[in-house]
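Q: Is it fine to ask for two folds in a single conversation?
A: Yes, each is treated on its own. Send the first.
Q: Here.
A: Result:
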Amino acid sequence: MDPQLKAELDTAYEAVFVAADAVHAALGRGLDPKFYMKCLARELELNAATVQRDVAVPVLYRDLKVPDALVLPLVVNGVAVVTAYSESSLTPEHDIRAQAQLRVSGLPMSIVLNFSAPSIRGGMRRVLNPAPRI
């Protein structure tokens, strides 16, 4: 992996961790993931991260272009998709969804958060795209 891209991914991951930890500490567990995402986006903005919300990604299939087939809930620093859940545990299906988002969007990394975990460190996963297009 390109060292500059690796540094950008590490920076984005650390920014999301710090922000998610602050949100988790303030709000606790068990709330709606959409609420956590709004708070996370605000915390990231306060920490000078670049945040894009509800990013529509067109999907191409043969001659069909669906302009809003995939909506990424949060994109941080232009390199990481962030998705939040509030479930008892993360499963392989969460990783499959993250990989699909990366494959379609071309972004290099996805961060999957589970705000129902006892600590955000244990409820956070990094999923990498083996063939990013940025």
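Q: Second one now.
A: Result:
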Amino acid sequence: MTESLVLVLAVLFMLAGLLGIFIPMIPGIPLILGVIVAYGWYEGFEVINVTYIAMMGGITLLSVLVDYLSTTLGAKYSGSSRAGVWGAFIGTFAGLFILPPLGLLIGPWIGAMLGEYLSANDLNKAVKAGFGTVVGLFSGMFFNLLLGLIMVVTFLMRVI
């Protein structure tokens, strides 16, 4: 393959990784890291060296931590229980399939509300939990988007 074609394929897979930040079934940031490592292997680890890969690995670990903490802290801040968090998680997947792309916003909110309501039988607490979980989820997505863009831009700066 020509170098240009390999670079185009790498960028396309990285764009898929950026989409994966919003679509739960695509491993977003880890996919971007995988592309960086694969491109480094392709070019002999001269431009994409071990130090750069280690830095991108650190960003990937940070993104996983952000994914976990943003939803959990959003739920905890709003007083949600474990049932509300699980409801948001299930609602995200259900919303993605039932009513894409709007379901990605509505699914976690309804899921968190249902989980919390079934657990606590308190509508006000359920609404608050749903709101907090969604705020946490989307603030985490936004931060991960920034991390993903940093990875893609630094990759392009190195290879172009």
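Q: Anything structural to flag on that second result?
A: Two points. The mean pLDDT is 90. Residues 3-159 form one domain.
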